[in-house]
Design goal:
The structure holds two protein chains of two kinds. Chain A is mainly β. Chain A has six helices and 30 strands. Chain A has a six-stranded mixed β-sheet with strand order 1-6-5-4-2-3. In chain A, strands 9-8-7-30 form a four-stranded antiparallel β-sheet, with no helix packed on it. In chain A, strands 10-11-12-13 form a four-stranded antiparallel β-sheet, with no helix packed on it. Chain B is α+β, with helices and mostly antiparallel strands. Chain B folds into two domains: 33 residues; 126 residues, OmpA-like domain (60s Ribosomal Protein L30, Chain: A, 2-Layer Sandwich). In chain B, strands 5-8-6-7 form a four-stranded mixed β-sheet. In chain B, strands 1-2 form a two-stranded antiparallel sheet. A two-stranded antiparallel ribbon of chain B has the order 3-4. In chain B, a hairpin with a 2-residue loop joins strand 3 and strand 4. In chain B, 40% of the residues are buried. Classes of the chains: A mainly beta, B alpha+beta. At the A-B interface, strand 22 of A face helix 3 and strand 7 of B.
């Protein structure tokens, strides 16, 4: 765990691509029906390097495996169409030095990714290049070193850099998802906190399943998690240091605390506290432990989420009689209802770009994941299902991850809970593979920049 | 011969359709008789704290208002608790699966407190009652239908000692 968090990436650019007007660009603001054909060549290694990498990491052809990670990421994004390697005419090592663009154009590749990987002083040294096949030009060239056991992250970092170069926006591939792993019958689910790479690999379980746990969320540096635990049958908000495994209760409340999230600066936890049938929103400062009451209303106030600048809070309240979304200033003043469409609204989550709020909507027996502007206008429903809720944004604000539960049959069987993702455009809906059933996903920020 | 066989078949078909429709109305009635509005009024899942003292009360969708039947149940619980002053209880509030997780946690807490308040009006000290919400985490019926949901919207009084 320690090493995953504390990785030192030395990134040095060894040639700056000239900004050229003719080079390829990918538009991510609309559903992309013609994904860009891209060839991802295996990262090359000399025979000697291949052998030392294999003995060190127990991976047969590391360069090939890394290129497969890149291919999978690009494919999942829905914006790219990675081409089958069987059709490649040029060998990885030569392609990386000097691609024969005619060969790549022949298989209809518009972009080409090449690279090289070897061991240097016990570190993994990686370099890669992105080429515009039709223009016959290099678009990007980077090299970096990392701890060998983080080799899967190399694939994610390459994808992030390629994505950024081609779309003009930061990627979201070198990230992780924290979620609740679920098992067992619906009436007695066993739930554990789990963490995995964004592509479903490297799953680790952070709790044993002895007590019910819900709604984990990362802090801005991805080192801490706040979540709800029923430890000793007292539902309380906890703070968990992923690196050390140390957990503590947040605050000293005489009743249930729930629905926690970090403030954007990571210094506070905002949550609901329920007492005598009334839930209100509170914050606790993690440094001086000072607790502040933010809302004071006899209705249910819950699911608070800060705007990225920390100045506002979106939350869920039934003060109008039914669940709706409200926005207030972070001191609790100027409360304003923003959801006015038909149905019930819950789980508001402020986009990392600040311009949108994602939500869950329940209308006529169906659940929707949608987005609206922060003034409540421009509501757009992205996906409809029997049951789904709790969207969480990718760090670039382009993708939402959420969970979906299935309807059981007449015998009450067939229940499952899975993670799904969808682009902000409403396209590219995908099942996110997990080892077990899963719910309550929360997306980390980029692990490296 | 052929004719009579056909008649026989027709009779059989008519007879069967009667039987089947009778069955259908019977089940429909059975379901109806277990719900009033969308509040569960049946006894399938109910357990008893003592003879004639049901352990749980049921709620309408998104509501925490106690029905007449719920108040009667809670009065029975209160009188049983008065007779057994050493007993302390936990009120477990629950919601159905048709709501967001966090809101349902709050709703379960509100329901259990509605029951707690009523027990207190009937003389049970608040020190004998604690409250916990499970939101939608612990359904008793895993069905995805209105009857199952009505059984799951509940506050259950559980002996704590």
């Amino acid at each position: 765990m320690k090493n995953i968090i504390k990785i030192l990436f030395v990134i040095y650019i060894f040639s700056f691509p000239l900004k050229s007007f003719a080079l390829i660009e990918v538009d991510i603001t609309r559903g992309n029906l013609n994904p860009l054909p891209v060839a991802v060549s295996a990262l090359s290694s000399s025979e000697k390097d291949k052998k030392s990498l294999e003995s060190k990491l127990d991976v047969k052809d590391l360069g090939l495996e890394i290129s497969k990670i890149v291919e999978n990421n690009l494919k999942q994004s829905g914006l790219f169409n990675p081409l089958n390697k069987d059709a490649f005419l040029q060998k990885p090592d030569i392609a990386h030095l000097k691609p024969r663009f005619e060969d790549w154009a022949l298989i209809k590749a518009q972009a080409l990714i090449t690279g090289k990987v070897n061991l240097q002083d016990d570190k993994l040294r990686v370099e890669f290049r992105l080429w515009d096949v039709l223009a016959g030009k290099e678009m990007l060239a980077l090299a970096f070193t990392t701890v060998p056991k983080n080799w899967r992250r190399v694939g994610h970092i390459i994808t992030d850099k390629v994505y950024e170069r081609l779309t003009g926006e930061k990627g979201y591939f070198d990230t992780r998802i924290i979620y609740v792993s679920e098992k067992g019958p619906k009436t007695q689910r066993i739930k554990k906190l789990a963490i995995m790479d964004q592509d479903g690999f490297n799953t680790k379980y952070l709790t044993l399943g002895n007590e019910l746990v819900l709604t984990p969320r990362f802090n801005p540096t991805n080192q801490m998690v706040t979540y709800l635990s029923y430890f000793k049958n007292l539902p309380r908000v906890y703070l968990l240091d992923i690196e050390t495994g140390i957990q503590e209760v947040v605050g000293d409340f005489p009743g249930m605390t729930f629905a926690p999230r970090f403030s954007p600066d990571g210094k506070k936890i905002i949550m609901s506290f329920a007492m005598d049938g009334n839930s209100d929103i509170y914050t606790m400062d993690l440094e001086n432990r000072i607790v502040e009451r933010i809302t004071n209303h006899p209705s249910i106030d819950t699911s608070p989420s800060y705007s990225p600048d920390g100045k506002y809070i979106a939350f869920n309240s039934d003060r109008s009689g039914y669940q709706q979304i409200y926005v207030m200033k972070s001191d609790g003043s100027k409360v304003k209802r923003i959801s006015f469409g038909k149905g019930l609204y819950g789980t508001p989550v402020w986009s990392p770009r600040g311009d949108l709020i994602a939500f869950t909507k329940l209308h006529k027996g169906k659940f929707y994941i949608g987005v609206m502007r922060t003034d409540g206008k421009g509501e757009r429903l992205l996906t409809e299902n029997y049951y789904q809720e709790a969207p969480s944004w990718s760090p670039n604000g382009r993708v939402l991850i959420f969970y979906r539960e299935t309807k059981t049959n007449s015998e009450g069987e067939g229940f499952s809970a899975k993670l799904w993702s969808i682009d902000l455009t409403g396209y590219n809906e995908r099942l996110v593979e997990t080892e077990t059933d899963a719910s309550d996903p929360s997306w980390s920020s980029l692990l490296s920049n | 011969m052929n004719l009579s066989k056909n008649y026989k078949n027709i009779f059989l078909a008519i007879f069967l359709s009667f039987v089947l429709s009778a069955c259908a109305t019977q089940t429909a009635k059975k379901v109806d008789s277990q719900m009033q509005g969308d509040v569960y009024t049946g006894t399938d899942t109910v357990e008893y704290l003592a003879d004639g003292v049901p352990d749980r009360v049921f709620f309408a969708t998104n509501e925490s208002v106690l029905t007449t039947a719920s108040r009667e149940t809670l009065r029975k619980q209160a009188s049983w608790l008065r007779k057994n002053p050493e007993v302390t209880v936990v009120l477990e509030g629950h919601a159905d699966e048709r709501g967001t997780r966090e809101y349902n946690l709050a709703l379960g807490e509100r329901r259990a407190n509605a029951a707690k308040d009523y027990l207190m009006t009937y003389g049970i000290a608040s020190s004998r009652i604690s409250v916990i919400s499970y939101g939608k985490e612990r359904p008793v019926d895993s069905g995805s239908n209105p009857l199952a949901w009505s059984k799951n919207r509940r506050s259950v009084t559980v002996k704590a000692n």
